[in-house]
Amino acid sequence: MKYLLTGDFHVKKGIFTNIILDYLDYIRQYSLDNDIKNIIIMGDIFDKSSNIKNEAFVPLFMKFYDMKMDGIKFYFILGNHDIYSVNNDSIVETFKPLGFVIKQTTYEDKFSFMPYTRNEEDIPETGDILFTHIPIADFSFDNAYHATEKHAFRKELFSQFNIVFTGHFHRHQHDKNIVYTGSPVQLNFGEEGQKKGFVIFDSVLEDWEFVEYKNSPKFVRINLNDFQDFNPINKFVGVKIDAKIENFIKLKRILLDKGAIDVVPFFERKEDIEVGQIDNLKEFSSIKDTIREYISKVEEENIDNKKLLKIFEKVLEA
Fold first, then answer.
1. Exposure pattern of 271-282 as b/e (b: 16+ CB <10 Å)?
2. Separation between Cα atoms, residue 61 and residue 68, nearest integer Å
3. Is the separation of the CB atoms in 202 and 9 below 8 Å?
4. Which of 195, 212, 229 is the last residue of a domain?
């Protein structure tokens, strides 16, 4: 029997809702064409459990409903972004009519399912195959953050499983028996250049393959003067700023007219980022980092940069 594994959608209102809906249409047809009846959602369906918009939730629910009507059986594993209480309460529980919601460790034949956790005691002791949503050391979150044992589970804790499939880190990657399915689309500039897609798992052969999804928008950074031969269609464009801001504004208009989804200024980092605590990282967003760096570099009379940064951080928390 074959299973399609996917997750880390981080659905929110706006263009990203449409991007994920298009992706679900793709895997719906892929499943029908390849006689796949089981889809395991590997966590983080929504971007922020405490602030889910109707315009994101309703169309997503209806899309899953239509897929169920096609005969698809769903498993929904809770990710850290899906959970809003210590009891693992989640809006994803409303998907129970559509399939199984994994709120606590669950067993099915040789499979073990485990939602997001920080506790070693929660790791199942039985089962050949584990499906979960957790940070594991020596894997990368995206292009910048690499997890260490200080903030992630040791690999050795999962040695008893033949295969561990997990969500949480957005880069598709694998080492020995551990496989990160990755997010199906690029979600920010931190994932620039990554191949995205989903995993097909054959439970009889206990084998898997990665299937690339090529239809989603891409995040691309360019220099201010290198746009003549650049095709911006279906792209989020980050423009590296090294000249007057007026030049960026003119270029933004040009790129939007030519089909870019969005165009943002991008300030190059002066030094590499040290590894941060992944569990506390709600969302790596180059746009937020760009704004932080811009505020810190504003040179205007009577402007208190530190105070502005504090105000910006409070706005993000709201």
1. eeeeeeebeeee
2. 11
3. no
4. 212
pTM of the predicted structure, to 2 decimals: 0.80
Quote the CA–CA distance of 57 and 140 in Å, as a whole number: 29
Beta strands 235-240 and 262-266, pairing class: parallel
289/268 Cα distance (integer angstroms): 10
Write the pLDDT tens digit of every residue in 214-271: 999 999 999 877 777 899 999 999 998 765 667 788 888 889 999 999 999 876 554 4
Name the least confident of 33-42, 175-184, 191-200, 299-308.
299-308
Q: Are 91 and 128 in contact (CB under 8 A)?
A: no
Let me know whether 102 and 180 are in one domain. yes
Distance between CA atoms of 252 and 246, rounded to whole angstroms? 10
- In this prediction, residue 56 carries a pLDDT of 85
Between 86 and 31, the more confident residue is 31
| CA–CA distance, 315 with 257 (Å, rounded to integer) | 31
Q: Which of 179, 212, 245 is the last residue of a domain?
A: 212
Contact between 181 and 199 under an 8 Å Cβ cutoff? The reply is yes
Whether 143 and 111 map to the same domain: the answer is: yes
Render pLDDT for 114-172 as a digit per residue (tens, 0 to 9).
Answer: 999 999 999 988 779 999 999 999 999 888 788 888 889 999 999 999 999 999 999 99
Examine the domain organization and report whether 223 and 196 are in the same domain.
no
CATH number at residue 111: 3.60.21.10
- As for how many domains the chain has, the answer is 2
6 and 103 housed in the same domain: yes
130/273 same-domain check = no
Structural domain for 252, as ranges: 218-317
Residue 183: CB partners within 8 Å, gap ≥ 6? 7, 8, 9, 10, 170, 191, 196
